[in-house]
Write a structure and sequence with these properties.
GO molecular function, one term: methyltransferase activity
Shape: globular
Bound molecules: S-adenosylmethionine
Keywords: Methyltransferase, S-adenosyl-L-methionine, Transferase
Protein name: Type III restriction system methylase
Distance between the termini: 37 Å
Number of helices: 10
Length: 220
């Protein structure tokens, strides 16, 4: 098990105390069905080095293995889906790097264990790319990335065979908040039903053409 504290200063400045494995599992067991649904989306806004996200990925990959372990292409597609549905934000750059590496390591070793010499580099490159987009360094309170721009997350969907669609959303839109949110008085004046606001569907800021899951890194 890794240490729960990196330094006293980090605990004081960022509340950084990592969750131990037993608690991670107990909490994830509360939503067990979702952790075992390959395409169920998880977003952790203070993901640290990935204690929760790595366990979610392990559980999803166990299901991918059970269902699709006999066909390499199917396994690769659904491993892609499993990784692509996991999102995280942390304010500390080293945590983000560690989280990405950890998730990559889990996917790489599971894939390698099953298919050994048949492993395809382009699949692993696609996984790396997903993690570079889905796990981000930023402030989950202001919803801004380390460079001050809004945090943007891609939504990935496997649509036809090996084709993937990508739509980008700001984190703020996904949370249904605005940096210039109207006050309740303004809403009342406009006769907007406050209860219905939460049901608004976020709009993507960018749509990408369909592409093979092996070629997502070519988007940029
Ligand atoms: C209590 S630790 C939990 C880490 C991880 N979720 C776990 O359970 O092991 C809190 C994490 O939040 C991060 N953090 C603190 N303030 C943040 C902010 N405003 N936005 C994003 N992450 C933040 C810290 O760097 C730290 O990794």
């Amino acid at each position: 098990m890794t240490a729960q504290v990196k330094s006293k200063q980090r605990v004081e400045e960022h509340g950084e105390v990592f969750t131990n494995e037993r608690e991670v599992n107990a909490m994830l067991d509360m939503v067990k069905q979702e952790t075992e649904r390959i395409d169920s989306r998880f977003l952790e806004p203070a993901c640290g080095d990935g204690n929760f996200l790595s366990e979610v990925l392990r559980r999803k990959l166990a299901v991918v293995g059970e269902r699709y372990g006999k066909s390499q292409l199917e396994y690769e597609r659904y491993m892609f889906v499993a990784v692509s549905s996991i999102y995280g934000v942390d304010i500390m750059a080293d945590n983000v790097d560690e989280c990405r590496e950890r998730l990559y390591g889990i996917a790489e070793s599971e894939y390698g264990r099953r298919f050994r010499d048949e492993r395809r580099v382009e699949v692993l490159d696609a996984i790396r790319y997903l993690l570079s987009k889905n796990i981000q360094c930023g402030d989950a309170l202001t919803l801004t990335a380390a460079d001050g721009d809004p945090i943007v997350f891609p939504e990935w969907s496997l649509v036809k065979g090996s084709k993937v669609s990508r739509r980008d959303f700001t984190f703020a839109a996904l949370l249904n908040v605005s940096t210039q949110a109207p006050t309740f008085d303004m809403l009342d004046e406009l006769e907007v039903d406050r209860d219905k606001l939460g049901a608004a569907i976020p709009k993507p800021i960018k749509n990408y053409p369909l592409t093979s899951f092996l070629e997502v890194a070519k988007y940029e």
